[in-house]
Amino acid sequence: MAQADTTRSARRNGHEPAADVPRPEPSRSRSASLLDRAWRELAGIVQRRIPSADLDERDPDYIREQLPLFWLFSSIWFRGEVRGLGNIPDEGPVLLVGNHSGGNMIPDTMVFTVAFSTYFGVERAFYQLAHNLVLSLPGLSWLRKFGTVAASPENARRALASGAALLVYPGGDYEVHRPSWESSRVDFGGRKGFIRLAIEQDVPIVPVVAIGGQETALFLTRGERLAHLLALDRVLRLKVLPVSLALPWIVNVGDFGHIPLPAKITIETLPAIDLRAEFGPDPDADEVYDHLMRLMQDALDALAAERRFPVLG
Amino acid sequence: MRVNSSTTVAAPIESVWAIVTDPERVLSFMSGVTRWEVVGDVPAGLGARYRMLFRIGAAEVGGLIEVVEFTEPSELAWTSVTGLDQRGRWRLREAPGGRTRVELRLAYGVAGAGLSGWIAERIAAPSVSRHARQTLRQLRRLVEQEQLRARAAARRAGAPGG
Q1: What ipTM does the predicted assembly reach?
Q2: For position B16, which CATH number holds?
């Protein structure tokens, strides 16, 4: 039953059915199969909690009324600075590609979303792809009103086809939990799906480079081996089980929320890339990826060179 | 939240009016404003629409505004159509000695934003107020310098052999 539900909500949400959810093997010990069953149950719960992606859930009036609150956080707590929003085409679908920092509290997403929404107005449709787990956490349903949808190729396609601006973080959970000393490194982990998407939908890519998020806590390790050992990668699509030093937990394992340090967050929006104009009628995803990585890494290096002190900026 | 600021400019009212109503020149004297684009076919006058942005804190706020009062050469008022709720007004009055009294009034807020909106308006106020004063200073310099150059040009034109 749980399996059927899981498959259905996964499909509804644009994912392939969770065929790789671990099944108990008869040869395993009793405790192992219990653990497996518990995980499978959890996976079912999470999958059922993932809301079906309905682009219509974005609520401009709600966003407008919440903007002052988020503006306060963004301006006072993070001293946010967003440059170059004029590089984003004024109209039409666009794929915004960002490097992701700051753990699960996603401070850079908040700073950018506030800036984007005030710059173009809440009337311009703007969606953000987020990890399934983020959308299934209790108490975060308001994110959907902000235009956050579960990350899947289908949802991304639907958002772009509707003419909206779409923000993706290809590095996702892998990049966002990188150690703090790798703060000024763009690391998508080789993920290129977003480029094929932009080519297929024929939309421009706008790189969005951010710094500061990795200073909101002391991120120590992604804990990839730990995640694999606990089968989190198969059950929850989590490749990491991050360990950081963060408030108020001190030692923070898994990062189900923490109080971010008030690090200054600076975001730079780079000029839009028209893929077919720059890479010919049939752009090569690898070539675009390399080009994009170079552009973004150069911009991030420049932002890093501007910073004098951690946190203070 | 309301912000008022005023100054006296050593120039006739028509010269000040010509500058505050010219959308092409707004960026050269309005402090904090990062965009001021004409939307539609009417560049100035009643019903003219502009897309404007104003940098405040971590964001550029603003939206579409429309001129709702245009009484030459003394009153220009606008109100927001989209984005931040705002009203603004240029109020010009003739002052003794061929000078002009200029007042800039701004009112802004976000309806329905509750407590956080109330706080945000007040946090932003000192900055908005500073920009309003700076705007008037820049406007005064711009107008007075233009007066000076116009007089100098007239002198040169009138000078023998010039």
Answers
A1: 0.88
A2: 3.30.530.20
